[in-house]
Design brief:
Layout: E1 15-20, H1 26-38, E2 42-47, H2 51-54, H3 57-64, E3 68-69, H4 80-85, E4 90-96, H5 98-106, H6 112-119, E5 124-128, H7 132-136, H8 138-149, E6 153-154, E7 158-161, E8 167-171, H9 175-188, E9 196-201, E10 206-207, E11 213-214, H10 221-232, E12 236-241, E13 253-256, H11 260-271, E14 276-279, E15 286-288, E16 307-309, H12 313-319, E17 329-336, H13 341-355, E18 359-364, E19 376-383, E20 386-394, H14 395-412
Parallel strand pairs: 1-2, 1-4, 2-3, 4-5, 5-6, 9-12, 9-14, 12-13, 14-17, 17-18
Antiparallel strand pairs: 7-8, 10-11, 15-16, 18-19, 19-20
The chain binds cytidine-5'-triphosphate.
Cytidine-5'-triphosphate is lined by residues 200, 260, 279, 281, 283, 285, 310-314, 332-335.
Length: 415
């Protein structure tokens, strides 16, 4: 079991919820609760009814020194799940059964565990545990994908011995691993406290007529993942959203800006108060010069649509210092369709100077494993100090690496 080391951040007094659902691994959750309590965290345990069939509430009460919640309705005037969720700094679900993951994904709140998880605003870490068939079921796969997209951290599962003497993928990771993951999340969760981060995400839709537009394939996933990562580190995040096809996690303010012009207005209105601006949106570079006031009819023949440039928001922010807060950090993206990674690096450096940004993330949007609509990105991060090749990374890891770079730059910039 882990013990505090000089490298670990202090978790003294930090409020951690440990949500235990019904699986054979429930006994291991006792080690998680005990370790965090020994490290000084204020651990509150919530158990599903099935969890109580595997391990007694009294065990957790004794290990954490706090009462354990097992019922949604306490009989009194209090609303236990709201009281538990408010002020929580991390919620750990261990073990996370397929059933509880499905409820989390669907937003079901029919017991104390699921209701608390629907109410929390803090980072959530799940440690799935189930039989291999359940883990591999497309329903579970899709639920996990949804949760990851919302910023939930997932630890495991691993392969090994399961209940009933079975072997395979689906075994909960060891308590020590859950605790170190939890300590990492808690440590990072204060890094951007009090910092205002503005993120743009998704593609813009430039209208042609009342029913048609010029758009692009951006899902908004990269920008939403960055917004979630910054929020997870304690930032106050505003998301200026074009067209999104992924959900936005709670706790992030969302402003809809469907066109490049609307996005510019929304960004400029908030740019002087933002400490960090991340322009992850796929903004159209051109828009129709004239928007037809009624639907263009086929009978009129193929229309000629003249395009005019949209405002380059990133360049404006990068080159006109008066519209940004002094010492703020500006991040731009560059969408590249070249597969050659050297091309990506050169392109990123060029954009850094051209747009006046502090950081440019260049990503390949033309491969089947990178760019629009997929979970991974082939990317480089360019700064004045040089270019860092990330290779093929998940959008979550790219977001994490980018936020790390932002924090590094804030550390060396007066603000
Ligand atoms: N951007 C912007 N306003 C625009 C167009 C783009 O703020 N009107 C921002 C995007 O949000 C992104 C970066 O600029 O951060 C992308 O720059 P862009 O010049 O469009 O580069 P690419 O998409 O890489 O394309 P191209 O090389 O064709 O310029």
């Amino acid at each position: 079991m882990p013990s505090p080391t000089p490298m670990q951040p202090s978790v003294q007094g930090r409020k951690v919820l440990l949500i235990v659902s019904g699986g054979i691994a429930a006994y291991k959750a006792a080690y998680v609760g005990r370790s965090l309590a020994l490290l000084g965290a204020d651990v509150r345990v919530v158990m599903t009814r099935s969890a109580t069939k595997f391990i007694g509430a009294q065990t957790f009460a004794g290990l954490t020194g706090n009462p354990v919640s097992t019922e949604l309705f306490g009989g009194g005037p209090d609303v236990p799940h709201v009281e538990l969720a408010r002020g929580a700094e991390l919620a750990i679900v261990a073990p996370a059964t397929a059933n509880l993951l499905a409820k989390m994904s669907a937003g079901i709140a029919d017991d104390i565990a699921s209701a608390t998880l629907l109410t929390v605003r803090c980072p959530v870490l799940v440690a799935p545990a189930m039989h291999t068939e359940m883990w591999e079921n497309p329903a579970t796969r899709s639920n996990i994908e949804t949760l990851v997209g919302r910023g939930v951290y997932v630890a495991g599962p691993t392969a090994g011995a399961l209940s009933s003497g079975d072997e395979g993928q689906g075994r909960m990771v060891e308590p020590g691993e859950i605790v170190s993951e939890a300590l990492g999340i808690l440590g990072r969760s204060q890094e951007l406290a009090g910092v205002r981060v503005l993120v743009t995400a998704g593609g813009t839709h430039e209208p042609i007529d009342p029913v048609r537009f010029i758009g692009n394939r951006s899902s908004g996933r990269m920008g939403v993942t960055i917004a979630a990562e910054a929020a997870g580190r304690g930032a106050k995040v505003t998301l200026v959203a074009g067209a999104l096809s992924v959900p936005v996690p709670g706790g992030i303010e969302v402003i809809h800006a469907p066109t490049a012009d609307e996005m510019r207005s929304a960004v400029v209105a908030r740019s002087t108060e933002s400490d960090v601006i991340v322009k992850a949106a796929a903004v159209a570079d051109f828009k129709p010069e004239v928007v037809a006031s009624s639907k263009i009819k086929k009978s009129s023949g193929p229309p000629e649509i003249r395009l005019v440039p949209t405002p380059d928001i990133l360049r404006e922010l990068g080159t006109d210092g008066s519209i940004r807060k002094a010492g703020s950090i500006l991040v731009g993206f560059a969408a590249e369709t070249e597969a050659d990674p050297r091309g990506l690096a050169a392109y990123a450096q060029e954009k850094l100077t051209l747009k006046g940004a502090d950081i440019i993330v260049a990503n390949d949007v033309a491969s089947s494993d990178s760019g629009f609509g997929v979970e991974t990105n082939r990317a480089v991060i360019a700064t004045a100090g040089g270019v860092r090749e990330l290779g093929l990374v998940s959008k979550r890891d790219l977001a994490r690496g980018l936020v790390d770079e932002i924090i590094r730059q804030r550390g060396s910039t007066p603000h």
